[in-house]
Amino acid sequence: MQIRAAEPGELEALARLWRDAWQDAHAHLVPAELARHRTLESFRDRLAAALADVRATGPLGAPDGFCMIHGEELYQLFVAASARGSGAAAALLADGEARLATAGVTTAWLACAIGNERAARFYEKHGWQRTGVVTSRLETPDGLFLLDVWRYEKPL
Which CATH number is 4-155's, of 2.60.40.10, 3.40.630.30, 3.40.50.620, 3.90.650.10? Predict the structure, then answer.
């Protein structure tokens, strides 16, 4: 599985992938007040602001998965439904972990929506351990939105 840098020309495709995967995995788990802020435009803006930290799988211009890191956090990891079972998620996770380790991170962390059992099983299968519940401070156009999430950690 080839992992590559995300390109500016595929922001729209990445944003659609993120929106669709987020809706599938999270929309039924989070308050409607947060879900209404998770628009295609919001995903596009967040990707554009962090593009240097985004790596993808799939053909250039038609990505089927991506991973974003931020500080010591494996910040986002999403794979299109059509790529589930292909190994893309595991490859992106390993790449994200390697990038964090290269940056000097010794213990990485990630947030997982409470109730997202599919993601929880995936992370645990790959050596991540749930350390508890924390409150994420999510930026929205209406200001900060506080959301309890599962925190996972992994020594690198």
Answer: 3.40.630.30
